[in-house]
């Protein structure tokens, strides 16, 4: 994280773009830490809120496109095997891929928009989108819109909190807990519906 913050301080918008792109590909770099700090940077007059949001959103779309093509070109069984083998340093487990796939099957393409605002899922959802070859234009639009909402919320919060930007991390813990509960309920709903259909 020190490296990410230094890169943003040194390169400004380019650094923010690169860090957010990497955040999509390497989950240990969390946007919920990076973007509030970028919001704090706006109070120093180095960058603007609008510029940070645009740079971060473009980075989000670029990273999502990489994972989309991973899903489209590699195939599901290879991805699951890779994640299972390297889940410790990826911080993503095979069940995350399954969950993302279930959400995609249940809620369709709007899932891409919603999952861009869910930790971990915001990166993972691009893979099933690639696996089913979701139309590229639609994928980019939904990814851009969902990422813009998430990025704007974090950047503006960081700008408002200023030097106390780390306070947002405490509130994001509550947000994660709510998301986890919702994810479990959705997973149970999908499983129940599957069992009911099988019995019919």
Structure notes:
About 80% of the residues lie in helices and about 0% in strands. It has about 200 residues and is an all-alpha fold. The protein has one domain. The longest helix has about 35 residues, at about 165-200. The protein is globular, with a radius of gyration of 17 Å. It starts with a helix and ends with a helix. The model has no long low-confidence stretch (mean pLDDT about 75).
Short summary:
The protein has 200 residues and is mainly alpha-helical. The chain has eleven helices and no strands.
List the helices and strands and how they pair.
Blueprint: H1 2-11, H2 13-25, H3 31-42, H4 49-74, H5 76-90, H6 94-107, H7 110-115, H8 121-124, H9 126-131, H10 136-161, H11 167-199
